[in-house]
Amino acid sequence: MNLATFHIGRCPGQVSPRSTQENQRHLHSIVEKTSTGKEIPMSAECLPRDRSIPASVILLIATFAVLAREPVRANEPLASVIADGKPWEMFVVKRRASNILVFRPDGGGTISDSLASIHPTWRAVPDGICITPKPGDAEKCLQLTRTKDGIKASQNGETVWVLKR
Question: pLDDT tens, 81-129?
């Protein structure tokens, strides 16, 4: 089916410079041609130009869901956010090197680069995380801070590493 003619008019109730008779002719000028060439008048639907409040709220929620990188977790310690079992890109500031960090909720994990992997253990502490790189090593405690790019780990005010997804 082809649309032979399609004219967009004003919806009923809207002010139009046309007369009522012209509006009626205009609304009926929307026709469809069948395969036999017969023209069938079609009715025009009018859509509201303003959005209702529920539709706007749904649109807003959908936008936030699409754009959100991480779920909102109010008052959840950042150590628990990191330890979700999913990989993080870990940029070690002093070495200027990137690693892959995966911490699991059970206190275990993996830190790996292109050559080697270690299997540290971790525990949450107020405002941070304590990590033991391997059995027998000293535990290293770091303060965790959320940044616009991810999560920063620092010790004595200096950034040690930054995590990104």
Answer: 999 999 999 999 999 999 999 999 999 999 999 889 999 999 999 999 9
What are φ and ψ of residue 163, in 5° steps?
-105, 140
| Block residue for tokens 């971790």 | 122
**pTM listed for this prediction:** 0.55
Query: What letter does residue 105 receive in the DSSP assignment?
Result: T
| Structural tokens at position 24 | 């009626």
Give the span between the Cα atoms of 4 and 146, in whole angstroms.
59
Query: What is the fold of 78-164?
Result: Lipocalin (2.40.128)
88 by DSSP, 3-state: which? strand
Domain ranges of the chain: 1-47, 78-164
3-state secondary structure of 58: helix
